[in-house]
Amino acid sequence: LYPAVPSELRLFVVGIGGWLNLNGSLICVFILAGASARIVGYDLSLLELLLAVPIAFLIGYVTPGLPGELIPFAAPIGAALHLPGPLLAPFIAVFIAFNFGLTDAFRTGLNTTDNCLSALRLLGALERRGALTADPESAEPP
Q1: What letter would DSSP give residue 1?
Q2: CA angle 54-60-63, nearest 5°?
Q3: Of 77, 86, 84, which Cα lies nearest the Cα of 35?
Q4: What gap in Å lies between CA 6 and CA 14, rounded to an integer?
Q5: How are the residues of the chain apportioned to helix, strand and coil, as percentages rounded to the nearest 5?
Q6: What pLDDT, in 10s, does the model give residues 90-133?
Q7: Beta carbons within 10 angstroms of residue 3's beta carbon
Q8: Mind listing the pLDDT tens digit for each residue in 4-62?
Q9: Dist. CA 96–CA 117, nearest whole Å
């Protein structure tokens, strides 16, 4: 869509954005933690769920965007939610089970779509200003 943008730059932006963009992961952790806790018989408050978001955010930066990427989140999120001992193992099992199939596909779709649109919008703005030209002196000031 943007032939004036060097392909190396496009590949870099989309690739690094796919790693750093956590929208889909955070949404899934938030929703799946509540659903998993409810299934094992533990009712969470909204505040408890919100307190788990920073932990999910931090774990997300060290987890690559691969299928089933939320599996490493299960135990830390269960611990952060202070689930009683007998409910922790079933919570982890249900949370992991939710991470395959459509939920994983939707999360990947959200992350890549959001990332691509943002990157292309930014690169398009840079292109219109001439910031991506080979001659930096011919570029318009920002």
Answers
A1: -
A2: 155
A3: 77
A4: 13
A5: 70, 0, 30
A6: 999 999 888 776 666 666 666 666 666 666 777 777 777 776 66
A7: 8
A8: 667 776 666 666 655 555 666 777 788 889 999 999 999 888 888 888 888 888 887 77
A9: 30
